[in-house]
Give the backbone structure.
Amino acid sequence: MMIDFVPDGDLYPFESRWFDSSAGRVHYIDEGTGPAILFCHGAPAWSFLYRNIVKDLRDQYRCIAVDYLGFGLSERPARFGYTIAEHTAVLGELIDHLQLDDFVVMGHDWGGPIGLGAVTPRADRVRGIVLGNTVFWPIEALANRAFSAIMSSRPMQRRILEQNFLVERVLLAELRHTLTAAEADHYRAVQQTAEARRGLAMMPKEIRAARPLLDQLAQDVPALLGDKPTLLVWGMRDMVFRPNHCIPRMRAAFTDLDVVELPHARHFIQEHASDAIAAAIAKRFP
């Protein structure tokens, strides 16, 4: 299944590109020239989340933003499992297809584990890392695990699939005073039907189910990427990945780390503080 939606050229002024992965057709954008940055979104977002950062940086960087299978404009393959491990493998295929080298990877929310999981086997090709409001270790906090259990229940799975709960009541509820009506509709439009939302419905389950992958990343990231120049851009009002827990653990994992606190930003930092994030990236990776 492909998504029948064309983004507004004023809001998303990018050329759509496509990669036929082993699992399905992946949509991405590839804008500008210069040092490459690969932007990895979380749930329930898509590459639209990075639009303002890409617009700010594409004059001096090559900005690549991907939609995972099941998200954004990418295909919804019937036989794909939509697990974090599968998304990670497909992203690795895209990195190899684009022959990325000496590049920066940015991950937010699930984009942290997916992006880091794709680059740990390719660590020698990584220039640097940007992480925002994410983790790469097993998620132990009771609130997060309770969210996973509740969202994985049959009634809530039905609401995710039939009422677009994660877009309407998680993303858009947080951003209701930040987005225009047209911007909000771009998050809705790529998740129009229950069939289109199957990949989205998997993500809360993975908070617990992806533990083997996260256990491995907790070892591999410090060992293979721990000496890479790294930037944290952190929404300090995030109730999902709380700064007082996450930032110290990030400091312990990376030896060359800069931290930029975004004092008024909640979880979806790209919508709250795109200018500050773009400026921090340009400063860290000139």
